[in-house]
Amino acid sequence: MPLLIKNAHVVNAADQYMADVFCAGEQVTRIETAGGIDVKSCPAGTEVIDATGKYVFPGFIDPHVHIYLPFMGTYAKDTWETASRAAIVGGTTTLIEMICPGKADEPMAAFETWLGKAQGVSACDFTFHMGVTRWDDAAEKQFRQIVERGIRSFKVFLAYKRALGVDDRELYHTLKLARELGVVVTAHCENETLVAERQAELIAAGKTGPEFHEPSRPVRVEAEGVHHLMTFAELTGAEVYVVHTSCDEAVREAVCAIERGVNAHLEVVLPHLVLDRSCMHKPGFEGAKYVMSPPLRDKAQLPKMWGHLRSRVVSTVATDHAPFDFETQKVMGKPPGSDFTKIPNGIPSVEDRVNLLYTRGVCEGRIDLHTFVDAASTRAARIFGLRGKGTIAVGADADIVVYDPAYRGTISAKTHQMATDYSAFEGWEIKGRPSVVAVRGQIMARDGRFVGKMGFGRLVARGAVAR
Q: Which of 238, 271, 289, 373 is the most exposed place for a label (fewest CB within 10 A)?
């Protein structure tokens, strides 16, 4: 069904204007000055939306989520049904999921497993970063085949020793292959040995509660991980993307490398902009709700990370959505036998990213509308080669969010679409929310309600990464 958005205040990463926007055949086909498209001239059955008083943004892209995730002795709670529905209600129309095979798993089999979980189920469009957890001749051959299937990014962990982490030989060969194939390597930057040793020391000293998660992997450990990655990227010429950068020290290591000519991008995730480590000191075992890696930092880091985002040194805002229930999963590290290293890492936030970024960022003057769109949509599309995504323009996919800045509401686990039993932002006010969300011209959500069709989402065609 064709779609016409009248009186649209269109906001892209670099421009804004008033217009009428017409969509047909899953794309934006006409943009005229506001009032320039007569409803009577449109094909029969055209859906008309009056966007007066609202913003019209390109569909938002979350470039870092976990949905199917076997991890730390359990499985992430969301499915592609619940996560994609939550994403769309929150204004996100494309997700990039991390494929995280175990070291003994065959890469191609893992790719097919992760793809099978999403295909025919997801309501939003999707693609993947292919996890590299081991390197040998057989794995390399499969990575080449996976890239030929259109997966133009890898993921490596410099953490989680004896689980997902890679050693330096594996990192080197992954980056060499990425340089050869022209794909980007996303990286979780810490130091697996330092983390493992510090964890063991803290547990031996009886420091077992959630509040000791952050001291086990402090800012210098993350900064060292970024420095390490940048050295390998410089020597191989690979393009790299640092996921969930949480602190100024890590950003500065990357900036130094970028100034030397390293082709690198930085991501911050929503929790590292709006939460701090005091959350892990909540009474009882409540702090477990906020255990993620890298951990939440001292509150003094928050304005620094907002500043890096505002200056666009940080390219993207993602979530690292990793949904685990509090009552049945986070409690794996609860007394008796308390051990913070057994708390599944992750904060569910795929539904809240756009609204909280707008509320805490735009409304409070930390970033402007163009940076908001760039960080939450456009830059991810460019870095990861998501053709047709991240902008409102003739020929682009009709992924559109009509956003109501006048809305006022409250976040609660009782009303969210995610499958988890808690919200890290329980009771928080939001100022603004999506009024209408369309994926390739198909309306999928209205005023906080999912109205679309499950399975509408498809694997996104990806071109060469940005250079």
A: 289
- pTM for the model stands at 0.97
Q: Where do the H-state alpha helices sit in 119-167?
A: 137-148
- Alpha carbon distance 396, 391 (integer Å): 7
> In one letter, which amino acid is 6?
K
pLDDT tens profile 419-438: 999 999 999 999 999 999 99
Instruction: Provide the 8-state DSSP code for 282.
Output: -
Task: Confirm if 202 and 227 have CB atoms less than 8 A apart.
Answer: no
Could you identify the residue written with the tokens 């003739």? Answer: 394
What's the rounded Cα separation, in Å, for the pair 167 and 157?
Answer: 9
The partner residues of 434 in beta bridges, in order of sequence, read: 403
Name the pLDDT band for 466 (thresholds 50, 70, 90). very low
Q: Could you give phi then psi for residue 195, rounded to 5 degrees?
A: -65, -45
Please report the DSSP string for 287-354 in residue order.
GGGG--SSPP--TTHHHHHHHHHHTTSS-EEE--B----TTTTGGGGPSSS--GGGSPP----TTTHH
- Whether omega before 336 lies within 30 degrees of 0, making that bond cis, reads yes
- Whether pLDDT at 467 is above 80: no
Neighbours of 388 (CB within 10 A): 20
Note the pLDDT tens digit of each residue in 301-345: 999 999 999 999 999 999 999 999 999 999 999 988 789 999 999
- Asked whether 404 and 435 are in contact (CB, 8 A), the reply is yes
What the block records as the tokens of 325 is 């229930």
How far is it, in rounded angstroms, from Cα 380 to Cα 365? 23
